[in-house]
Amino acid sequence: MTQRRLPSGQGPSRRPGAGGRPTGSRSRNTGPIRVPSSRRGSGSEGGEAVKRTDAPRPRALTGRATILIAVFVALALAYTYPLRVYLEQETQIAQMEQGVTEQRAEIAATAKEVEKWQDDEYLRIQAREKYFYVRPGETPLLVYPDPEGAARDANKKAPAAAPDRWYDTLWSSVQAANAEPPN
Fold first, then answer.
1. Residues with Cβ within 8 Å of residue 23, at least 6 apart in sequence
2. Which of 9, 81, 138, 165 is the most exposed place for a label (fewest CB within 10 A)?
3. For residue range 105-152, what is the model confidence (pLDDT) as tens digits?
4. DSSP E strands, 31-147
C-alpha cells in the first residue's frame, strides 16, 4: 500500500497503524487503571490501582498577551479624554456656526427693513396707517370698533321669507306641466 502525501510534498498525513485516530496531547481522565506490580510476592495479579493524571493544559493568557492587553487598555484610556474633548469642541463649533447663520439672517432682514424706510412712498403709507395722516384735500373717515353694537346687531335676525302656500305651489306645477310642448 502506498502512502499519500500532502499537497505541500511533506510526509504522509497519518502514521501507519494509527488506527484512523489522530494522536493528540489531550488525555481524558478515565479513572484508576491497574498497573502490574513490581512485587511478585504480593499474590495479587492485577497490581495496584494508579490514578491517571491529566496532561498540563497551557495557560489561557501568556505573559506577552497580558502585557499586550494592558498596553491596549492604557492606550484606549489615554485616547478617551482627548477624543471626548474633540467631540465637545466639534459640537460647540456647530452651535456657533448655526448662531452666526441666524444672526446673518437677522441682519439681512433688518437691512431690508431699513431699505424700505428709505423709500418716500413707504413712509407715506406708514404715516397713513399708523398716524392717520391725510393729504391736503382728502377727508379722513375713521371707523371705530363697537363690539357691543355688533353683538346687538348679531342678535337681530332678518325676517325670513314667507313660505309659499301649498295651493300656490300646486297651481304653479300645473301651469308648468301645461306649458310643456307635446312629444
1. 15
2. 9
3. 999 999 999 999 999 999 999 998 898 888 889 888 888 888 888 778
4. 32-35, 48-51
